[in-house]
Amino acid sequence: MNWEVVIPQLIFLASIFIIGFWASRKIASKSNFLQEYFLGSRELGGLILAMTMIATYGSASSFVGGPGAAYSQGLGWVLLAMSQVATGYFVLMILGKKFAIKSRHYKAVTLVDYLKGRYNSKAVVLLSALSIIIFLFSAMTAQWVGGARLIESLTGLSYISALFIFAVSVIIYVIIGGFRAVAVTDTLQGIVMFFGTLIILAGTIIAGGGMGNIMSDLANENPNLVSPFGHDGSLTPLYVSSFWILVGVGVVGLPQVAVRAMSYKDSKGMHRALIIGTIVVAFMMFGMHLVGVMARPILPGIEVADSVMPMIAMEVLPAWLAGIVLAAPMAAIMSTVDSLLLLVSSTVVKDVYLNYVNPEAARKKVKTISFGVTAVLGISVFALALSPPDLLIWLNLFAFGGLESAFIWPVVLGLYWAKGNKYGAMASIILGVGTYSVIHNVWPEPFGMHTVTLPVFISFLGYVIASLLTDRSVTPANMQDGAVKG
């Protein structure tokens, strides 16, 4: 085992556990367990809000799968990745203050809580909870695999042993610390990701003999590698622009991102998060994907694309520095995994158990069930990750597309269109999830566009048409805050 690489990882993990124990003491001191455990008592400032959104969104896809795809596709994939720069800005600009005010009005702790308050419909709640549980299991599995592969490549342990270490680490600190531990560790992880990107970018440029030399080597191998269209010309302008729906504006519909827009302390914090988030995302997405491309002439012939990032770090940096830098992708993976784990746990406990099974459950029982559900979910994902896919980015993007197709319109139009109602929300979720699942499997990339484009459009039509057709059944007595009652 290469201890020079492993020791920085151990120090990083120890820091995460310390934060988890600190957050567990906060939970004990707060009177409202659910608000604290699942939303950090809505006390996030600008820096923590920005970094937790970045760290949650920046995942194994951004730091492991993305650079791997850039290694195969060339500079065209870097251009594709840059469409994510506006992600944080769009989320906070579109949801922003209005979403936070409505969430407080509905006393919402989760995204499903918000939908329950807005549409007052059991069907909407159950459809939403089911969508989150199914799709986030896919996303969590991809992240679990990414974390295990990174530990495997760093330590030389078997995949199963690496997966076990990763799973135990995440499950323990999420169980004991809840949302506050997740948000504060996200901040530490976001800072590690930023400086890790800076160091590996500089190291790769130096090792490749400068940017001019690296670009010349890439062009000599295949001129398409330095074009915007990918190594085989498959990244057409239509595909790239439609991909922006998946990784840009569509992110508004992701529950794990939307819930962070509920948790900030004041509008000053939100505005600060807008600026910090956009700058940091731009740098990290550009840097990590560019490193993936530049690794190609330095380490030609890598067969498993997901191993590009750890291999290039250990090739161009001293072992001890590679260990520090590789805490960045580990941070990206852990910060996404912990958020998804807590989100699915909150869906089961708050949205299903407390709404429909035992609404009068005592605090002690809710606490025990929250810890138990989080542990069972983590163990279940561990079991699913035992047979990993070859390229985890696609599994993760499948989950992203499904959730965006389900939630973007019930969330956004629910905020801004008073005529939107529960029938529109149900139609949008069913059509979004249904068409995305079918198109993804039988008609991928229809008309040369990304798979998510048509489902998002169809779910939009479903929301508007169903709301308008049922609008006559709505009376002034069952309207409140633009919501339809009953």
Features:
486 residues, 21 helices, 76% helix, 1% strand, globular
Could you provide a short overview of the structure?
The protein is an all-alpha fold and 486 residues long. The protein contains 21 helices and two strands.
Molecular structure report:
It is a multi-pass membrane protein. It holds the Pfam family SSF. The chain crosses the membrane at residues 6-23, 44-63, 75-95, 124-145, 157-179, 191-215, 235-254, 274-299, 319-345, 366-386, 392-416, 423-443, 449-469. The chain is built from 21 helices and 2 strands. It is an all-alpha fold. It has a single domain (3-359, 369-392), classed as Sodium/glucose cotransporter, CATH 1.20.1730.10. A two-stranded antiparallel ribbon has the order 1-2. The longest helix is centred in the middle third of the chain and has 49 residues, at 159-207. The chain starts with a helix and ends with a strand. The model is unreliable at 475-486 (pLDDT under 50).
Number of helices: 21
Secondary structure: number of strands: 2
Shape: globular
What structural class is derived from the secondary structure elements? mainly alpha
Number of domains: 1
Report the β-strand fraction as a percent range.
Answer: under 5%
Distance between the termini: 62 Å
The biggest sheet, with number of strands, parallel, antiparallel or mixed sense and barrel status, is:
2 strands, antiparallel
CATH fold-level topology: Sodium/glucose cotransporter
CATH superfamily: Sodium/glucose cotransporter
**H/E series:** HHHHHHHHHHHHHHHHHHHHHEE
Strand order in the largest sheet: 1-2
| CATH class label | Mainly Alpha
Overall mean confidence score, pLDDT? 78
Radius of gyration: 22 Å
Keywords: Cell membrane, Membrane, Transmembrane, Transmembrane helix, Transport
Family: Belongs to the sodium:solute symporter (SSF) (TC 2.A.21) family.
Main location: membrane
InterPro entries: Na/Glc_symporter_sf (IPR038377), Na/pantothenate_symporter (IPR011849), Na/solute_symporter (IPR001734), Na/solute_symporter_CS (IPR018212), Sodium:Solute_Symporter (IPR050277)
